[in-house]
Amino acid sequence: MEELSGCDATVMISASEIDANLYYATRFAAPDPFIFIQTGAEKIAVMSDLELDRAKSQASVDTVLSYGAYERMARQKGADTPSLLDVLDLVLQERGARHLLVPGNLGVEYADGLRARGYTLSVKREPFFESRLVKSDAEVEAITATQRATEEAMGAAVSAIRAAKVEAGGLLYLDGELLTAEALKRIMHVKLMEQQCVAQHTIVAPGLQGVDPHHHGNGPIRANESIVIDVFPRSERSRYFADMSRTVVKGKASSKLRAMYRAVLSAQERGMELIRDEADGRAIHAEVNAVLEKDGFTTCIRGGRMQGFFHGTGHGVGLDIHEPPRIGKTGGVLRSGYVVTVEPGLYYLDAGAIRIEDLVVVTTAGCRNLTNFPKEISEFEIE
Prior knowledge:
By secondary structure, this protein is of the alpha+beta class. The chain has two domains: about 10-130, 3-Layer(aba) Sandwich (Creatine Amidinohydrolase, Chain A, domain 1), CATH 3.40.350.10; about 135-380, Creatine Amidinohydrolase (Alpha-Beta Complex). It is about 30% helix and about 25% strand. The strands form eight sheets. Strands 4-3-2-1-5-6 form a six-stranded mixed sheet, with helices on both faces. Strands 11-12-14-24 form a four-stranded mixed sheet, covered by helices on one side. A three-stranded antiparallel sheet has the order 7-8-9, with helices on one face. Strand 8 (about 170-175) and strand 9 (about 175-180) form a beta hairpin. Helix 3 crosses helix 4 and helix 6 crosses helix 7 (about 180-195). The longest helix has 27 residues, at about 135-165. The protein is elongated. The mean pLDDT is about 95.
């Protein structure tokens, strides 16, 4: 864990179940906020009596303190109804810490309260722990395992589309029931649950819904339209995310959609060729965009809507679904061990949407694709 430049201690107050930095620091998932302190080499968790024994056996910290014991101590010192700040103050006093390094998501109440008690705070922007960006072999293995579950879920969705029958009006029916975006999400989510993974905000965006890249998608699936599927679950075992997107058409795609697919696939391949240790994410994004423009696909506002390629090429993935670095207009330098997505797309109201997304780990020689799911043009149109 990073050293504290000019500070006596790191302080975090959050629920590690939803705070990836706190989970990274403790490897302990708790649904309620608790206090974490690091002074020098000592990592301390101050836990409620409810979580005390579990933290002692599971948390990767040096010391687990009883919140209740410090509450009683605060009462003895005159606090009628001791607050979390009273407890934190006592622990920090014991360790002689006055200058604190805190994350940007520390609550205003806590920040103001600490300053009122004479503490000085230095706020560190993300990434709070730079070491989170470079994944260990074990972390890459965990992400890969989540990606394998993701591929099973994607395969189940594609199989359902393949098995569906085209009925009147181009609507798809599976086992006599209208096939909808909601039904495809259920199929994928059940498959993920079988692998102890959970997905939220899964995208199954048929037709022009996909032109809004983060439209979750709803309603009937129709033949001859693009279907953007983007799923990014987290493993309940490791807590690491994965991420992948595929686009398919049931039936025949228009000539423009086929050209868009080829262009996006070429752009993705070019981006992956450029990813390596010390590569500039901004330059990679510019080259990906250049491939799309060379193939005739420009980006602009048409009919009041952004159309073309108007999001980043990729982002980091780990304990959060969106982590640094970014491969985009504000991209930074890539380092060996980063795990990033490569996900160019094209979006046009007169055709539909295409997005293809793989997950790769950066190496000194290039990158290694962690995704093992077909994306060739022959897989695009499903009969």
